# Entry
Amino acid sequence: MAKRNDRYQNRTELLQGTLDMLILQTLQWAPRHGYALSKAIRTNSGEILKVDTGSLYPALHRLERKGWIAAEWKDSDIGPRLRVYRLTQAGKRQLASERSHWERLTAAIAGILNPAKKENLP
Amino acid sequence: MKWAFWHRKRRNEELQEEIRAHLFLAEREAVESGQTPKQARHAARREFGNVAVAEEVTRDMWGWRWAADFLQDLRYAIRSFRQRPGFVAVALLTLALGTGATTVMFSLVSGVLLRPLPYPEPNRLVAVNGHTDGWNTEIYGEQKLAYLDFLDCQRDSHSLDLAALVYNSGTLSAPGDPQYVNYYEISPELFSVVGVPWALGRAFLPEEDKIGATPVAILGYSFWKQRFDGRADVLGSSLVLEQKRYTIVGVAPAGFKLYGYEPEVYTLLGQDPAGYLHNRAAQPVHVVGRLRPGATLTQAQAEIALTGSHLAQAFADTNKGRSLLVKRLQPPVGDVGSTLWLLLGAVGLVLLIACANVASLMLARAISRERELAMRVALGAGRGRLVRQCLAESALLSLAGGILGVILANWGLHPFLAFWPGDLPRAEEVQLDWRVLLFAVAVSLLTSILCGLAPAWRAPVREVEQILRAGARTVTTGTRRLHSAFVVSEMALAIVLLVAAGMLGRTLLHASSLNPGLDIRNLLVMRVGLSPATLADPAKIPSAWQELIDRARRVPGVQSVTAVDIVPMRQGNNEYGYWTSADVPPENKRPMALASSATPDYLNVMKIPLLEGRFFDDHDRLGSEPVIVVDDVLARSAFGGQDALGKNLWIPDMPCPQPDINKFVECPTPFKIVGVVGHVRYWGLAGDDQAQLRAQFYYPFAQVASPFLTRWSQLMSIAVRTTVPPLTLVEPLRRALRGAARDQVLYQVRTMEQLAHNSLAMQRFLLLLFGIFAALALVLACIGIYGVLAYLTGRRVPEIGLRMAIGASPAEVTWLVLRQSLGMILLGISIGTVAALAAGRLLERLVEGMQRSTVSTFFVTIPLLVLAGMLASLVPALRASRVDPVNALRQE
# Structure
């Protein structure tokens, strides 16, 4: 139990910043339930990013606890009721800050990757 | 709030529902994409991964996992306790006794030493004391103030409201039977400065505080209850104190004990014309003050110091070298603090032993559950979780023990207080208040950590596989060492307490065997309040005493009677500085001696041996040569080996014949030593040897000049040598000595045996407590040894079986176990001996008359401890020797 827990928690942590951002970003367009959310991330990333469900639900509950997203039970016409998450005001602010952080990070990484090529020039 | 801990069950169901919905959607999509329902279900599951783990990790995100775990731990602990009621009972009892005893001692420390004074804003109350150059505060206590100096301070101070108080005593002759009472002469501001409310009536008025004003009195609350049955109509009625009729105007509040004593009556200081109150050389006044709003202690100190230096300049003949000091007012507890801390420390040791005991019990239990714990680790419990589990068990135990302990303390506190020898100052303020409860909680938490840490630390984490494979039969070296550590520390703590008890026992034995210097059997001493009419006229006093002695002598059963001002082993003493030549050095450079004035029969009545010369006789009177008789201690210290007889001593402070008592003129004439007598243990059997002041001399009461006779007579006692049990003569003496006006009272009636007995009361009390603590420690340590050995031996059964199979005899096996315990015991004793020596030093400093810890103390206590320890180990050892090798090996 413990070791497997650790494994999941580690992966959550590894992805944490990114996964949180992806969830917030995806919820920005419309409220979704967990399954739709994971599908949306997969589809929007061109089937490249596959969200591990073992990480998705912990992340959703953590974000809910932080108040960035809010959940609501909705009856569906297809059968079971669904827990639908939507972005809160705090979540919108968080998303903005995470996006700018992400952009700085990618720019910095790009900056490191690109000069390496320049140095190779004679 | 939906995150609330209490909704976790519903939350759990919702989470499961959410995940079910996820799986349902995934499955439906797979079906829509053309898979069979079965394939679709499997695909959805596969993609999702482990549902249970996902649920658990999600639950972690809710943030109250620790609380859920804690509840689970508690439930688990209760369940496992239920399986072992014996263990729980022993552990609870041990902890309850330990915490209970500690709580009782702490309530005393808290009530007597830590609680602020029971008045409003106690931190703004101050005491004003005097200090004369060369005055040794440690020996003589704080110096008080002269009344006139107080009045000057009161007038000049801007930062303090000041009030004065003088202790006095006298005969209250009406209404009702005469009674000797203590009264406080106070300035009218006293009650308002201290800030106590009124029980009844009114305070003194400032305009009443002068000579010639209508005499008014306030009753002490207890006295009002006892003597006046608490009737409200006492207001306006009158009482006669020292022949002066006072109108009662008020009753002081209950329990008002400003200097640790509740007087019977309060009168006004300003109405008292006594000479000593109007002489700056006499300093009888306690001064208490309250900082005015906005004023600080530093301001008050500077201000009063300035007043002091002005006074020293203005009245050089009386105030030279004297300064005035302001300090925060301290509760009047005397030197009881060291005893209380000592007892708290001792009881703390018992608590530590109790903790070690419970810890070793819990450790043994934890190890016998090692397989179970290892199984839990294998199933995924983290190390932290196991540690918390162990701590939850010990927390539950020690909190329950703590609650039981507080109940025990609550029940035992007052019997214990009643048991305290003499009066414990502020005893009425001792109670189980929040401070004590907080302490009990802290102690319980500490014990839970102490008890739970070892098993928690031992929690198996690393060698899970081995433990599961090997079964529960092996004891690792680490465990054995840990077990031994408990036994060793219990032994070490026990020996500290045993040696302390041994030292106290020796002290008591030694002190009881000491010669008090007089014959304490059939000797009755009592103070006498002479008729106030006699006291008012010094000319009548000598004949009044003579008549009193004659009357007492005629009571059947009385052998002889003497009058004396100070009585050995009773409170109250008088001391003077002396010198062997006329060239007397300043006061603080003179050696001091205890002085008592007595009638010629004193030596016979007390049966003090006469070593040389003579005692007083009827020829020693005013006008004849001033004589004294010294004891052998003074003779030795003043004259070395030389003969003291016939030599002179200069004693400038002695009451010389002077026309005016208010002028303290140094006595210029020397006193001739006419006799040398044996030393009397004035400070009690235990205390006298180490007392600062041991030299004694006696001077004839008949040579006390008449201006001093009134004061002296207020202090005089009579001692009666009887032929029958002395206490049977109390009533006959009371009747015989009542006097013509029936207003002479006997008070503080004691037999000399009682006084001698009381002089050892504190030592006896400490011995009893330390004896109990030591016995408790011994029993606990033995239980500890027994438990640890029984456990360790039980685990060694296969090994012992093997040893026996290859030829070890039962005796050898017994010795094997005993050797193990002997090793632990001896290690504990050697560590404990070092600690005991240190504790002995402490005792010597804190307890009067304490005998050095000697080799003999250790000779008695160490074998006792070894023997007890070996006896405790004998049962497991014998059990080991009866191991059946075949069975033992089969178990393996």
About this structure: DSSP finds four helices and three strands in chain A. Chain A touches chain B through 29 residues (CB under 8 Å). The longest helix of chain A spans residues 89-120. The helical segments of chain A are 2-29, 34-44, 53-66, 89-120.
